[in-house]
Amino acid sequence: MAIGGTRKAALLLKSLDDRTAAELLKSASPQVVREIAAELAYMDASGAGKDQVAEQAIREFFTLLAQTTGKGGGETYVKAMLESALGKDRSQEVLDQVRQMVDARDPFMQIRTTEVELLAQALAGESGGVVALVLSELPAKKSTQLLGILDEKVRFEAISGMASGEDASPEVRLRVATVVRERLKAQSASRREGAPVGNAAARREQQLRKLAIVLRGLKTDLRDAMVNTIAERDKEVAASVVKLMVIWEDIPAVMPRSLQEVLRTIDSRRLALGLVGADPAILQKVRQNISERANAMLEEETSLLSSPKPEDTVEARGEILATLRELNAKGELRFEET
After folding, report:
1. Residue 230 to residue 58: CA distance in whole angstroms
2. Other C-beta atoms within 10 Å of 105: how many?
3. What 3-state DSSP class applies to 335?
């Protein structure tokens, strides 16, 4: 692939110390300086250009200098190079412009390197369309991990958005990336100040989920007594705890006999709907605990589903969960983890 002139100039500067690079840049126009600095910053962040050969780059660079007229090792180097070439006051202005140029070129670069848990917190409360756009910009493995910890409703909206195949405009991509980066920046500031990170409602649900897991491991009489005690103080909290004792992600941990009893009562079409987009572990667990005939019926119903609505899948999963929770209320649902 042919290497562009600006890339070749950046490759040359990467082989020089910052002072020598700055001397070369002094004869370049401000626009050329900005473009080369942006290329250096992009190359460092993306890892591009590591195996490029500099000989052709040297020739191209002097051509570029002759017409109108950075070493890359990160923004620290770019900043030092610009200060040497332009002075401290002017260099900050150019550095801000460089950041904008890099963002315009690939606004999701920083987001791709962020931990999945922090991304989930930054996306809390966002629409499925926004989440779909972010997921489409991430590596496949990170997208899968992020999907697994998102709110269920948003998860299916995001999947539908990705399946639609609609491309976002550069302006929309930049706007979404900017919002997400600002939230990540705010989270980082909160962690430095010792403040709790993430959505308050999400943190509260996590606390209740932990309590629910503890309670479901108790004997039925003791569990019910403790739930009743909670209900005397707050009925809504008690109801939430009961629901959180069994969630969709718990299915792989349900003991085979318990799961078999539940699956026998579920219509094949409803089961097929509920398994749309399900985690492979859940799908495998279900298929292992239904008969060959039921598996064949499930396969047939799945093939008949063209474009199921996310809300239909959520409703079908709700029905399956309702049966599991009913069994749990009787003290008859067993988990492999206990």
Report:
1. 74
2. 15
3. strand
What is the Cα gyration radius of the chain? 28
Tokens of 118: 């922090």
The domain 111-192 is placed in CATH, from the list 3.10.690.10, 1.10.220.30, 3.40.50.1220, 1.10.730.10, at 1.10.220.30
Calpha distance 254→88 (Å, rounded) = 63
Q: Give the predicted TM-score (pTM) of the model.
A: 0.45
Domain boundaries, the chain: 5-106, 111-192, 199-245, 246-338
134-137, long-range: CB < 8 A, 24+ apart? 134/108, 134/176, 134/180, 135/162, 136/162, 137/108, 137/111, 137/112, 137/173, 137/177
Distance CA 72, CA 88 (A): 19
Q: What is the pLDDT of residue 257?
A: 93
Half-sphere exposure of 219 (CA within 13 A, CB side): 2
**H or E element: which one contains 199?**
none
Q: Which residues contact 237 (CB under 8 A, 6 or more apart)?
A: 208, 230
CATH number of 246-338: 1.10.220.30
Q: Any residues with CB less than 8 A from the CB of 22 and at least 6 apart, and which?
A: 81, 82, 83, 84, 85
Over the chain (338 residues), the average pLDDT of each successive run of 10 is 60 60 64 72 59 43 39 52 66 64 72 85 84 87 82 79 74 86 77 54 78 88 91 89 92 94 93 90 93 94 84 90 94 81
φ and ψ at residue 254, rounded to 5 degrees: -75, 135
Q: Where are the beta strands (DSSP E) in 88-215?
A: none
Burial category of 73 from C-beta neighbours within 10 Å (exposed 0-12, middle 13-18, buried 19 and up): middle
